[in-house]
Amino acid sequence: MRPAAVISVCLLTLLLTACGQAPIRTTPDDFTLSGRPSGHLTVLEKWADPEYAPYFEEVARAYEKRNPDVTIELQAVGDQPYKDRIAVLAAARDLPDIYFSWPGRYAGKFADGKMAADLTSQLKNTAWGRSFEPEALDAFTFRGRIHGVPLDMDAKVLAYNKRIFAEAGVREPRSFPALLTACDRIKRAGYVPIAFGNQYGWPAGHLLTQFNAMEVPPAVLARDYAGRGGNDAFHHPGYVRALEDLRRLRQRCFAPGGTSMSHEAAQARLVYGKAAMQYVETLEFSYLSEAGGAPKSFAHDWDFFALPAIPGAAGSARALAGGTDGLMVSGNSPDKALAVDFLRFLTSRTRARALVHDLGWLSSVKDTADAGTLRGLPKAQRTIAGHDMAVWLDTAADDTIVNPYLSAAESVLSGRMTPQRAIVEVRRGAEKGRRFGVRP
Fold first, then answer.
1. Fewer beta carbons within 10 Å, N or C terminal of the chain?
2. pLDDT tens figures, 305-355
């Protein structure tokens, strides 16, 4: 369930130009079924893992049983195969009726390219639309129009070992300086404060998602991520401060030495009592349970909190790094009404509660977390609802920005670059995107 690392340049260009074809217009009539649901739907998604695939197969078969005149062809592939396949299908303008999308700029390319149906009439100010968390719908809203149906919610929080906190005399910190002070106390108690592994780069990207959102005004951040900053892109001082926050966290809270271990190896340090905290996705809560492999002593004695606010920062004090996976309806689909009816079924309250219970994910549908059996889910849903969602950097920004950003973050973590030098590399990536015609 990791966010996509990059968007292929081929797909990016295709979606920006829409292959030179005229816009595809939708009307409310496109979503009106004439009689009982009937027809054939093709669905392409990326939940191929044996843990998750049976759930989606069961939903498809349940809809078919409810509607005997409908057949659903469900195809599930992994993250990278999905990115490759959707690029080919987009190039051929042969998208399935329903297809998966990450949030933010990734989804925005399909919307801008007229490849995703405009679902505003179905989701804005309707009972169905009001059933979702507002931030989930916002992740698929572009220029005031809604182009995707959110399915799950995910956010990054600091999970912690309650026993170690008590031993070190530490409480949940209410500010970033208090977090750094807590790390000092935990070190003195003989533990690694925060287990952190950045082998594949995305964990640092998640931290920068959080720090950028806290340090940079939302309008400036959105402008720069979208490639509309021109010569001023990434010149707000908050960008340097965000990298300085990352460096302070590294110096005060991470283990001595490098950060090149995997995220999973770092997680083992948390659950086996070697580290006090780890920055985890709420989708990872299952791995902190006994069923997920955690020792009983930890599985029943952990809690979490959102990364606390940075005093005096220019961004959102309530920012929370995260995102929502969703599904889009092809603008070319001849069965938009049937596709929307299936998506209504998939995201009904009953099905949303089943998703929480069966998969341990948070649903994008409001007030469903109590259906889960995993520790922490209801609190996680309240936490997300009480914060401003900062969509993952690697789906919010263009890959000409993301790639140098992740490289710069690793250089700051390793001490090879100062924050001031690292942001210069990011600006060069943004300039490269402008020079080679990558634009909003």
1. C
2. 999 999 999 999 999 999 999 999 999 999 999 999 999 999 999 999 999
pLDDT per position as a tens digit, 67-105: 999 999 999 999 889 989 999 999 999 999 999 999 988
Q: Of 266, 259, 256, 233, which Cα lies nearest the Cα of 433?
A: 233
For residue 283, the 8-state DSSP code is: G
| CATH code, 140 | 3.40.190.10
Q: How far apart are CA 10 and CA 424, in angstroms?
A: 26
Q: Are residues 54 and 130 in the same domain?
A: yes
Q: Is the domain of 70 the same as that of 186?
A: no
Torsion of CA 393, 395, 396, 402, to 10 degrees: 50
CA distance 146 to 144: 7
- The residue behind tokens 């349970």 is 289
Give 64-95 as a DSSP string: HHHSTTEEEEEEE--HHHHHHHHHHHHHTT--
Strand ranges for 236-291 from DSSP E: 275-281
